[in-house]
Amino acid sequence: MRTTKRFTPDVLERFQREGRGTGIYTEYIPWHQVTRGDPASLGRSHLLNWQGRQRELLSDGELVMTLFVTMLPGIDDLREQFPLSPTVAPHEMCDYAPNSIPQRFSGTQDIAAKLGYKHPMTTGKGKVSPWIMSTDLLVVLKRANGRKELLAVAYKTAEEIKKRRTKQLLEIEQAYWQARNVQWLLITPKQFDKRVGLTLRRVAPWALGTPVPVNILRQVADIVSKLPERSLTLTLQHLSSITGEMEMSQRALWQAVCFGYLPIDLSRGWRPHLPLKRQTQQDFLAQNPIAMRRSAWI
Question: What's the Cα-to-Cα distance from 257 to each of 70, 72, 191, 218, 222, rounded to whole Å?
Answer without folding.
Answer: 12, 12, 21, 10, 12
